[in-house]
Backbone:
């Protein structure tokens, strides 16, 4: 019989590029049950849907009170989505449990303990969990110490751990004494060629989540400072706020027809959609550790789309931009610095950067990361013979 694998993610996996790639590899090894928000994703043998209205952190009044009193043990399985996840997957046997992000570790280990003999847990931590949103005061005061507790308590029990890049993997090693391997956010190789430049126009693109804290305002302001020959197309996953933040961004850009808003496209279609543009832009002030050490999906999506890159400084992205000659790094994190970096690029230089992305696309695809995942999964399933 094929091994039975449980993949837990407090996201809608259909829109979560990293988990979709993980799911494709997991399905090579067994029958995968997904436990997440949203409908059944591709690659899943069975899907257990968590009500998307339920928060994955203890944000109820009793939960917040417990966080304030540092009663973490009492609340670690009490977040509404976590409770529902435990209920949905109860009384089932799995040979491997995958916890995507640290917030899924407690329920992953709880479910493992209900299985005779237990099941190994793979924690794919994505980013640096304790400081995911420390630029928000309530997160900094209540959630950061809670997530630190979760990592300190559950990582020593976790049989395999992966993180998004070497800088963040090293933080986990240093602060929690665990062994961590790197699985980047690189997407699959796309068989595309650089698109031709359009005379008299430089076409900019950005993709990501329309949520506060991503400096979308700064990118919009930068483009408003550029001449009319520059355009920006935004492909954004809307926040779960009824469109409030989306409307705020559109209002900022209301005075200009240079900026166009698009709904997000499926992850597997994104690079082909972006291929029509010239430069992928991203600027994010390092308000958190994750911002400082960013190596986001969009970096790899832009490369697969064969775009030149204009990014703000970050150890991980800057190293790869310089190594492969992919683009320019802004002097600082201001809208003016982003505008200046874009304006510094001639048509000839942009064409060269797009070609460099083409040459680097294979090396910066997910092949290397999938090999790491296969090694992790093989090792955890080895006792099954």
Residues:
């Amino acid at each position: 019989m094929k091994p039975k694998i449980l993949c837990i993610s407090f996201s809608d996996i259909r829109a979560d590029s990293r988990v979709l790639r993980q799911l494709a590899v997991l399905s090579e090894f067994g029958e995968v049950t997904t436990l997440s928000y949203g409908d059944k994703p591709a690659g899943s043998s069975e899907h257990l849907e968590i009500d998307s209205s339920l928060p994955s952190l203890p944000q109820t009044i009793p939960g917040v009170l417990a966080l304030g009193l540092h009663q973490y043990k009492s609340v670690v399985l009490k977040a509404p989505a976590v409770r529902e996840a435990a209920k949905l997957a109860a009384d089932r046997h799995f040979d491997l449990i995958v916890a995507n992000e640290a917030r899924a570790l407690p329920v992953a280990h709880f479910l493992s303990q209900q299985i005779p003999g237990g099941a190994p847990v793979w924690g794919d931590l994505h980013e640096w969990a304790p400081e995911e949103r420390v630029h928000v005061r309530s997160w900094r005061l209540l959630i950061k110490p809670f997530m630190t507790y979760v990592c300190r308590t559950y990582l020593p029990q976790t049989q395999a751990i992966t993180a998004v890049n070497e800088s963040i993997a090293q933080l986990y090693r240093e602060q929690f004494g665990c062994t961590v391997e790197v699985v980047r956010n690189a997407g699959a190789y796309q068989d595309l060629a650089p698109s031709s430049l359009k005379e008299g126009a430089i076409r900019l693109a950005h993709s990501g989540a329309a949520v506060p804290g991503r400096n979308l305002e700064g990118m919009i302001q930068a483009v408003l400072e550029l001449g009319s020959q520059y355009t920006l197309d935004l492909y954004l996953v809307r926040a779960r706020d009824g469109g409030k933040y989306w409307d705020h961004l559109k209002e900022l850009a209301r005075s200009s027809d240079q900026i166009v808003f698009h709904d997000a496209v499926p992850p597997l279609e994104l690079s082909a959609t972006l291929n029509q543009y010239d430069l992928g832009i991203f600027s994010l002030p390092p308000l958190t550790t994750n911002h400082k050490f960013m190596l986001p999906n969009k970096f790899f999506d832009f490369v697969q789309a064969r775009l030149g890159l204009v990014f703000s400084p970050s150890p991980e992205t800057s190293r790869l931009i310089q190594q492969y000659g992919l683009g320019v790094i802004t002097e600082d994190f201001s809208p003016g610095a982003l505008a200046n970096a874009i304006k510094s690029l001639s048509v000839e230089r942009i064409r060269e950067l797009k070609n460099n992305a083409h040459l680097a696309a294979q090396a910066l695809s997910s092949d290397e990361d999938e090999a790491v995942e296969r090694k992790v999964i093989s090792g955890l399933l080895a006792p099954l013979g």
